[in-house]
UniProtKB/TrEMBL annotation:
Top-rank taxon: Bacteria
Pfam families, alphabetized: NUDIX
Species, as recorded: Emticicia oligotrophica (strain DSM 17448 / CIP 109782 / MTCC 6937 / GPTSA100-15)
Sequence similarity: Belongs to the Nudix hydrolase family.
Highest classification ranks of the organism: Bacteria, Pseudomonadati, Bacteroidota, Cytophagia, Cytophagales
Signal sequence segment: none
Recorded GO MF terms: hydrolase activity
Stated name of the protein: NUDIX hydrolase
Length: 157
């Protein structure tokens, strides 16, 4: 499977429709948990907080707990919503709801997207990153969420 094939599959799965996404901001020891994804639209690794699509009939907080477990191996408690973001870069269009989350169990592992074949996985890396590390990434390499905040304290308030 080539990278072009994986991008095409991802665009078919996630594109050309509006997706509601639940995303979690997990901060520990001055670092936030981030997932490095194979880029769907560009050519570089794309870093974003864990999260994913809400399924029909699924409550948003349940979707976030499921996504965290699938992507990171961690069980989380969902806290307050800190941001709603609309992402539009066709063929992708997402309504993203960001919540603070607290780790309550599990062990950190590099997870997967169950809807994708093993050779098509978008999840490539998982890291605890400082805000300085996130800020040092090019805009195309990180979720636009990080352009809205200058510190973790601004998120937690």
């Amino acid at each position: 499977m080539t990278e072009i094939d994986a991008k095409s599959t991802a665009q078919k799965l996630y594109g050309n429709r509006i997706r509601v996404r639940a995303c979690g901001i997990c901060i520990e020891n001055g670092r936030v948990l981030m997932i490095g994804h194979r880029a769907i639209l560009g050519d570089t690794t794309f870093w974003a907080p864990p999260g994913g699509g809400v399924e029909l009939g699924e409550m948003i907080e349940d979707a976030l707990r499921r996504e965290f477990l699938e992507e990171t191996g961690l069980e989380v408690e969902v806290g307050k919503m800190v941001l709603m973001n609309e992402f539009v870069n066709l063929p992708l269009h997402g309504i993203e709801l960001f919540f603070l989350v607290k780790k309550i169990g599990g062990e950190l592992v590099l997870g997967q997207d169950p809807e994708m074949k093993s050779e098509e996985q978008l999840i490539q890396k998982i890291e605890w990153m400082s805000l300085d590390e996130i800020k040092s990434l090019n805009l195309s390499e990180k979720h636009q969420f990080w352009q809205k905040y200058g510190s973790f304290d601004e998120i937690i308030v």
